[in-house]
Every structure is written in structure tokens, then in C-alpha cells.
Amino acid sequence: MKIILAPMDGLTDVYARELLTRIGGYDLCVTEFLRVTDTLFPSRVFYRRFPELKQNPEIHKQLSHNHPSYSKAIQCHTKSGTPVFLQLLGSDHSAMAENAAKAVQLGAIGIDLNFGCPSKTVNKSDGGASLLKYPEKINQIVSSVRRAVPQDIPVTAKMRLGFNDQSLAHENALAIQDGGANWVTIHARTKKDGYRPPAYWDALAPISDLLDIPVIANGEIWSIDDYFNCRERSTCDSVMLGRGAMVTPNLALQIKQTLNNETVQTLSWQAVTQILENLYGLMLSNPNLKERYIAPRLKLWVKWLMPTYTQAEEIFTQLKLIKDPHQAIKLIKRSR
Ligand SMILES: Cc1cc2nc3c(=O)[nH]c(=O)nc-3n(C[C@H](O)[C@H](O)[C@H](O)COP(=O)(O)O)c2cc1C
Fold first, then answer.
1. Which of 45, 51, 97, 233 is the most interior residue, by most CB within 10 Å?
2. Which DSSP string do the residues of 109-178 spell out, in sequence order?
3. Does pTM surpass 0.90?
4. What is the pLDDT of residue 70?
5. Which residues in the chain land under pLDDT 50?
6. 114 close to ligand 1 (CB < 6 Angstrom)
7. How much is the pLDDT for 119?
8. 236, part of any domain
């Protein structure tokens, strides 16, 4: 049973991946999508989207040479040791394969392929969810990428149930399996459904039955109860958590604690503000990140926390007017 942190463009960046996996419960993260057109990216593009691809000396120091994850700990893991896969999005199978191969040469330990993005810009150029209309194209992309990277590197895919309807869901899932993917994550909605509840978890059960590779369920898991309902209806043990991870930062840990019959811990507002302080610290220590980006990022996090924490709601009106990151963090700390 695995819990994967969802790729969410503009949300689960390197900082979110670091802070959420530090809380615990996650077995894997997937980067936000890197959009491939028809060119081979220079290394810096991969590093920008996926900083964990660079060596991670802190983890390197923590593990001894004979630790089982020593070699992998250097690259592609968050500092707390959770592996990270790179997600690629695009419709040109050769360019996808070339870029996947380059990412692996740079050290990537897994490649995830995006067949679910609903963005108009992306769909206009036949990337993301629009590919769900063409199972043969999906198959071609998966098999090209599979052939381009060594067998021991997992190639995985993330799809929605369809574009306008679910009629091609089984064909698309089979196209992914036949292309050689190690598993498929299914966001249990069509592109047309967008992000509107409900997620159609029941639709995953027959797909999971049909495929020999694991199916990871995704969509609308906001609580421990949702996890168990999703698991029962989809028949999938493993899940990917998206927005729920931002709203309840320890959701993955809570699910794992429940499964292990341990006491479920709640995360106090005090602890959450410490996470926000760490976020501020991490961003501030990045010499390549302009200071003006820090306050918006803190505001975004606080906004996502509002459904769970009344304190987040209480400070947000004042916080949203602040541009200076130092003042923003002061206000957050004062709310403890
Ligand atoms: C702001 C935002 C950005 C997203 N970006 C990506 C992305 O880069 N790649 C991807 O495969 N899915 C992306 N998704 C979809 C999520 O990974 C996930 O499938 C979706 O949010 C449903 O899960 P949830 O109901 O748990 O949030 C994004 C979703 C959101 C809300």
C-alpha cells in the first residue's frame, strides 16, 4: 500500500515536496509536469523543475555507504528520503523519449507521463488530457519512453477517466499497460468533470480488475474516511493525494497511522506555523529565488490551510495585503 504525493503545478514544488514528506506518510512524490514540445531540454531545465535531481549532500552525509538507499539518496529524493519521479507532458513521442532518456542520464529514478492535464494551452497542442481521445497515441508515447530508458527505471503514467466521457477509459488504461508502464494512476474524473466532486472511484474497480499492473486511485481524498471509502469502491489500496495534502498537511501520516492501528495525531496550528516558517527559511536560503516570490507562496499555503485551521482564516485578510516576506512570516508567527 503506497501513498503518493500528487504533482500539482504551482503547489507541490520542491519546497512543498520537502515539507510534506518531512511530516511523513508519503512513499513517493511526482514533480509538477515538465512540458516537452519538440526539443531536447538542456540540463538546467530539468534541474529547475526538479532540484532533487542534483546531488543532495545532506542525505549523503546521513546514510552510510552500505545503507540500501545510499546510491539513490544522493539524487531524486527529498531531504527526508522520499523518492521523487519526474513528470513529463507532451504529445511528441520521440521528444518525450529523448527527454526521458536525458533525465535518466542526469540521474532520474522514475519517469511519470501526464495524460490528464486539462489546461487549454496544453490540450490545444494535443498534450495532457486531450491524448485520452487517442489511445494509440498514448500507447506510442509510453512505449517510446519505455524503450528509451533502462528497464530498471520505472515508467508510470497518470490519466483521467476520459476527455468528455469515460468511454475510452479501459482502452487508455490498456494502452498504458501495453506500452510497458509499471503502474497507472487514475484521477477518477474526466477532463470535462474538471475538479468538480464527486470523483468516480467505482469506475476504477473494473480497470484495476482488467489490468495486470497496479492502479493507483486519485481524486477527492480529503480525509481518512475518504481514503477508506475510495479504497473500498475502487478496490485500489494505493492512492495519490492532491489538494487534500495541502489542506491537511499530515493526511498521509494520519492514513498510515490508522492502518497501523496507531493513535492518529492531529497537527496543531503551532506545528503548522513552524512548517510555514521552514518554508520561508527554505525559500530565503535559495539564492536563485527572488524575494518577491516568497510572500505569495506563504499566502497560497495559508489559503489552502483555511478549511482545516480557523487561525489561517483569521490571518488571511491581513496577510493577503502584505508583500514583504519578513512581515508575512512575522504575522504568521504572531498567530501561534
Ligand atoms: C493546482 C493544480 C495543479 C495540478 N498540476 C498537475 C500536474 O502538474 N500534473 C498532473 O499530473 N496533475 C496535476 N494536477 C492534478 C492532481 O495531480 C490530481 O490529479 C487532482 O488534483 C485530483 O486529486 P485531488 O482531488 O486529490 O486534488 C494538478 C491539480 C491542481 C489542483
1. 97
2. --EEEEE----HHHHHTT-GGGGGG-HHHHHHHHHHHHHHS-TTS-EEEEEEEESSSSTTHHHHHHHHHH
3. yes
4. 55
5. none
6. yes
7. 87
8. yes
